[in-house]
Specification:
96 residues; 3 strands; 34% helix
Length: 96
């Protein structure tokens, strides 16, 4: 009898800010090489398009209705709090 082992999945949620996406994706690639499945949940504010070396990753978009102008005059923390509140229901649905 052959034993089937379920692969574990890691969910990455990039913050819509500069400077961390490439490091996060390098970490995701390392985890993937070690047998983990990778899902990237994103919004229109941090949209990543799967390139050649990310084709094994699953990309899901969390719908939100905020306009970019809603974030123009906010500090980074306030921006994240507003986005968090806006995406709470759709993120929960994504996890389901």
């Amino acid at each position: 009898m052959e034993e089937t082992q379920a692969r574990k999945r890691v969910l990455f949620v990039p913050v819509p800010a500069q400077g961390h996406i490439s490091s996060m994706m390098q970490f995701a690639k390392t985890l993937h090489l070690n047998g983990l499945l990778i899902t990237v949940a994103q919004t229109k504010f941090n949209y990543l398009s799967p390139s050649g070396d990310l084709t094994d990753f699953e990309f899901v978009t969390i719908p939100e209705s905020l306009q970019e102008s809603a974030f123009e005059n906010l500090r980074p923390i306030l921006c994240l709090l507003k986005l968090n509140k806006e995406c709470q229901v759709s993120f929960r649905d994504c996890l389901g």
